[in-house]
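Progress note, project year one: complex with 2-acetamido-2-deoxy-beta-D-glucopyranose.
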Amino acid sequence: MLTALLAGVLCLWAVPGLEAQVPYERNLSKLRINELGNLAMQMEHSINAEKYACESYFDHVCSRNRPLFSIMGHMPQTSDLIQLLTKLQNDPVQFEAKQKLIDFFISCNTRKSLMDCYRETFEYFKPLFGYIITKDLVEASSHELQDFRDLIQSFLVRTQTVFDNDVNPIRNKLRTYREKFASPGIYFYAGDLNREYAALRIYRESYDHNLRNLEQHRKRNSSYELGVQRTMLDWSLYLYQSQHKPMSYYYPTFTVHLYMTMFNITERQRDFTRFREDVECLKLPQYVNVLSEARMLAVIYLKSFRHTWQEYSDWIQLSTKHREIYDQENEILRQHHLSNKRLFFTLYAQNFCEFGKELAEHVFYLGLKENADFFNTYSCGFQTDTARDCV
Ligand SMILES: *[C@@H]1O[C@H](CO)[C@@H](O)[C@H](O)[C@H]1NC(C)=O
Ligand SMILES: *[C@@H]1O[C@H](CO)[C@@H](O)[C@H](O)[C@H]1NC(C)=O
Ligand SMILES: *[C@@H]1O[C@H](CO)[C@@H](O)[C@H](O)[C@H]1NC(C)=O
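Model obtained:
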């Protein structure tokens, strides 16, 4: 069914060239193999191997303070930033808003590095980056976009029975976004962008003026900060920073957030007495039990983790092709003493580094602590003290 759905997707921007993406046929593309290598290297810097994973997973994945993925900020590598700016400059469509961004970077680069210029002004120029990303980099035919739409679809299918009618508005929105992401580029038109930046004055020669003008511009209401446009923009940027990544990356960074959003609604609507009984059955640590909000979060995250892990496990088994991709990735990762499962658990756990050790281990990691795959992956002795069937 999914294939039929995706077969209708038009290839809007066939941009052949080095970056063109080769969908999986038997073997992984060079780009995906390279990205696995990169990810493995980043992971080596990210985790603290001196901290034993089974003892404190938080210390293991968070104590070096270098998460692999950050939902909060989009910070490309220098080479990616240069690629983005070059693509934007070489894009045959000439329009004012784009010229403003380019002039700004020229003025800024006389004083600072490109990365600093980007870091300081990313929020202002996000829609223009969205424009070039969806036009040139997240191609309609790319496996990212297909995988991404499959992720939304599979979430919708699997949760049909999990979430009742009350959360249908969100499910309907997701259905719409899946369609919109067949051609995300149409949300970033040159004409709209010109209007968005119409009042902004940028001078090539005067970085100081530009900074001030940007501050002013920021105070205006941006049409890209609201509703559909915002989600299209945020998810497009997410797709860009997720290029060539394995599925063990997408599930713990995207799908899990969909579950959290849904359970955050449904769990709060549940019958209070039943909820309390379930929580008592879970035998949560004292630290969590004393606060009703902590209990609530514990259940939301436990459920979100379980469902996400189940989805990923099912994805692996869904077809021979998936299994082959998974095995090949693991073979490459093995050279770095890694595996898809380790990637999954690390990325999941790093969602919560900023909350600190106590909250992470007592509230957010409950799912990990009762997961047999987790224990096997890190060769911890498997012993569960959480009752699995309570919630
Ligand atoms: C696929 O990769 C495997 C090793 O990972 C190699 O033995 C095989 O020849 C490759 N097949 C193709 C069609 O490239
Ligand atoms: C921005 O939007 C808010 C809420 O819609 C509105 O109250 C405010 O007046 C707007 N500001 C400007 C400068 O348009
Ligand atoms: C969860 O729900 C609460 C209460 O409705 C809300 O304040 C909070 O922002 C939500 N959190 C997430 C992550 O959706």
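Residues 1-22 have pLDDT under 50 and may be disordered.
Residues 220-221 surround 2-acetamido-2-deoxy-beta-D-glucopyranose (ligand 2) (CB under 6 Å).
No further modelling is planned for this target in the current period.
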